[in-house]
Amino acid sequence: MARPATRSVTPRRQQILAASAELFARRGFHGVGIDDIGAAVGISGPGVYRHFRNKDALLGELLVGVSERLLTGAEDRVRTHLRGPEPSPAGALRALVRFQVEFALDQPALITVQARDLANLAEADRRQVRQLQRRYVEVWVEVIRQVSPGCDQATGRAAAHALFGLINSTPHGAVLDRPAMARLLEHMAIAAVAPL
């Protein structure tokens, strides 16, 4: 069953989501209280409840929201490069890699929270995140298989997950400045799959 549409993201809700991601990434979901979240955005802890039902709902909106944004962004890039008059699988792969690299470098807290706190989601939210993640992987698999025509479905899926591991490791040790790190990750990711 689909999760009800998320509420519109007001500036205050966005601020609470961003602060929560940073706090959850540093201390883990169970290490952060509602008062900590309120203090991070300059309101009382109970003031957070005007925007979110509880901390579980906040985590759900955070992780479902990021999964939806990733899927939509990937589909948009593939549509641009594969569905036009001159399809370019290589262009689609470069666009997907760039998109994932930008996400990893700009949202390291969300990567950490997504990896560590998925199990803390309510069951319905966890199912939705998993479904969105599977669809996101399949977007990549389609492109990888077009770039490497001999690649089967299982190998394409394994390659997609390997690329995510490569790119998403950046929150744990980005030692170069952002442009240099982006170039390095993009080069390594493209080289890893073209052709398999």
Give a written overview of the molecule.
Helices cover 72% and strands 0% of the residues. The N and C termini lie far apart (37 Å). It contains nine helices and no strands. It has one domain: Tetracycline Repressor, domain 2 (Orthogonal Bundle), CATH 1.10.357.10. The protein has 196 residues and is an all-alpha fold.
Question: SSE layout and pairings?
Answer:
Blueprint: H1 11-27, H2 34-41, H3 45-48, H4 55-82, H5 89-106, H6 108-117, H7 123-147, H8 153-168, H9 178-193
Would you tell me the overall average pLDDT?
91
Structural class: mainly alpha
Question: What's the level 1 CATH class?
Answer: Mainly Alpha
Globally, the shape reads: elongated
- Computed over alpha carbons, the radius of gyration is 18 Å
Main sheet: strands, sense, barrel = none
Strand portion:
under 5%
Poorly predicted spans: 1-6
CATH architecture grouping: Orthogonal Bundle
Number of domains in the coordinates?
1
Percent helix range: over 70%
CATH topology: Tetracycline Repressor, domain 2
What's the helix count?
9
The counted number of beta strands is: 0
Order of SSEs: HHHHHHHHH
CATH superfamily: Tetracycline Repressor, domain 2
Task: Tell me the span between the first and last alpha carbons.
Answer: 37 Å
